[in-house]
Amino acid sequence: MTIGKPPHSSPLRRPGRAIRVFGSAIGDGVTSRRKAPNARDNTIRFLTAVGFVHGAGALLLWLPWTDNPGKATSPVDAIFTAVAAFTGTFAVVDTA
After folding, report:
1. DSSP state for residue 16 in the 8-state scheme
2. What was the pLDDT predicted at 43?
3. Which of 3, 87, 90, 95 is buried deepest, with most CB atoms within 10 A?
4. Contacts of 75 (CB under 8 A, 6+ apart)
5. How far apart are CA 51 and CA 60, in angstroms?
6. Helix, strand, or coil here: 25?
7. How confident is the model over 1-30, as pLDDT tens digits?
8. Residue 64 near residue 53 (C-beta atoms within 8 A)
């Protein structure tokens, strides 16, 4: 064991560098604080999730095996049905 080197140091770590876990620095006595989420961050996160659910639902409704044979659902009808189903109005276009 050499003097000045911690007994459990990794050869991959450079001195003075902290290990980051989920955005927080650990080790070497360095702490960093993340800023608290504000209303804008939460709004963007919520709208992104809602848009993803709408898009995924529309994509699934637009797939060929969701229709009767010989009939195709238009992308507008698929989006309308997905949004209506998500919001709870259940105003559905007859896609069958």
Report:
1. T
2. 92
3. 95
4. 58, 62
5. 14
6. strand
7. 556 555 555 555 555 566 666 666 665 555
8. no
Q: Structure tokens of 74? A: 């238009």
Specify the DSSP element, H or E, that contains 61. Answer: helix 39-62
Q: Please state the separation of Cα 63 from the chain's center in Å.
A: 23
Q: For residue 18, with 0-12 CB atoms within 10 Å meaning exposed, 13-18 middle and 19 or more buried, which class applies?
A: middle
Domain spans, the chain: 39-87
Residues composing the chain: 96
**Two structure tokens written together for 71:** 């009939």
- 3-state class of 77 per DSSP? helix
